[in-house]
């Protein structure tokens, strides 16, 4: 037990070091602070408020446990981050675990009017399928093909990351809830729990699993996104192990 405690303390120390190096402790100026973030503020440097990284790590741990459980149950998470600093990070993180994502402008009704949004996604899949099969050539004029291509590009821009989302997700991971207010609002209306990286201008009480931290620096966003992906992968590994045990497969790969 003592050995496990030492290992855990080392892990926490390493995490705190990673958070510090990524600049996760930097918030905004005091005048931009939302009251709900006050308990997580450690101090001020050059008029910029600093987060208490120990408290940040606790929030991250709580969120990670939730995400790991989702992975174990193979539940779907929708990744959302439309700000310039987050777009490529969000899409890359989601793709690592084959999750849907919105790495651009949130289209109103993506959650609350999903049946209509799904029709647009189906149309995108139809166009992609026809193009891949070469059905455009010889059947349509150059102008018609051009119009189809433009339609496909427009649909990809808004819905390309949602192709794998056949039904409403079981959770949402958001970067900057202040910017993604509409996405968070729709998730709440649909009863979908939200895990979110939130800076000091965000309302911590608006989501189920808040993670206060720097949501404007690429290194910080990357670190938190990676931690969410890692948690989900751990859950998937548990699911595989459990499945093998239930099927009577031993550690050596043979039947027990």
Task: Write a short abstract of this structure.
The chain has 7 helices and 8 strands; from the N terminus they run H-E-E-E-H-E-H-E-H-H-E-H-E-E-H.
Number of domains: 2
Q: Superfamily at the CATH H level of the largest domain?
A: Glucose-6-phosphate isomerase like protein, domain 1
CATH names the topology of the largest domain as Rossmann fold
Level-2 CATH architecture of the largest domain: 3-Layer(aba) Sandwich
Q: What form results from the Cα inertia axes?
A: globular
**Order of strands, widest sheet:** 5-4-6-7-8
Helix content: 40-55%
How many angstroms separate the termini?
Answer: 30 Å
CATH class of the largest domain: Alpha Beta
Uncertain runs: none
User: Strand-residue fraction?
Assistant: 5-15%
Note down, in words, how this protein is organized.
The protein has a five-stranded parallel beta sheet, with helices on both faces. The protein has helices spanning 2-21, 53-72, 87-96, 114-132, 142-159, 181-189, 218-246, and strands spanning 26-29, 41-45, 48-51, 77-80, 101-102, 171-175, 194-198, 209-212. It folds into two domains: 18-111 and 168-245, Glucose-6-phosphate isomerase like protein, domain 1 (Rossmann fold); 112-164. The chain is 49% helix and 13% strand. β4, α3 and β5 form a beta-alpha-beta unit. The protein is α/β, with parallel strands linked by helices. α2 (53-72) packs parallel to α7 and α3 packs parallel to α7 (218-246). It is built from seven helices and eight strands. The two termini are 30 Å apart.
């Amino acid at each position: 037990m003592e050995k496990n405690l030492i290992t855990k303390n080392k892990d926490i120390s390493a995490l705190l070091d990673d958070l510090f190096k990524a600049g996760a402790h930097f918030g905004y100026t005091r005048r931009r602070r939302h009251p709900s973030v006050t308990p997580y503020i450690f101090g001020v440097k050059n008029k910029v408020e600093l987060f208490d990284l120990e408290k940040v790590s606790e929030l991250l741990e709580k969120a990670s446990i939730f995400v790991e459980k989702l992975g174990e149950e193979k539940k779907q998470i929708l990744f959302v981050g439309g700000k310039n600093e987050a777009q490529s990070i969000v899409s890359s993180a989601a793709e690592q675990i084959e999750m849907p994502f919105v790495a651009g402008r949130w289209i109103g009704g993506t959650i609350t009017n999903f049946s209509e949004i799904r029709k647009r996604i189906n149309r995108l899949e139809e166009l992609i399928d026809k193009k891949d099969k070469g059905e455009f050539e010889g059947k349509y004029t150059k102008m018609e093909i051009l119009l189809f291509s433009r339609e496909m590009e427009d649909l990809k821009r808004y819905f390309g990351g949602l192709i794998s989302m056949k039904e409403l997700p079981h959770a949402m991971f958001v970067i900057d809830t202040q910017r993604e207010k509409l996405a968070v609002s729709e998730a709440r209306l649909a009863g979908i729990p939200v895990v979110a990286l939130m800076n000091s201008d965000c309302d911590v009480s608006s989501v189920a699993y808040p993670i206060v931290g720097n949501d404007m620096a690429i290194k910080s966003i990357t670190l938190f996104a990676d931690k969410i992906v890692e948690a989900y992968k751990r859950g998937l590994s548990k699911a595989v192990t459990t499945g093998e045990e239930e099927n009577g497969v031993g550690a050596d790969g043979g039947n027990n």
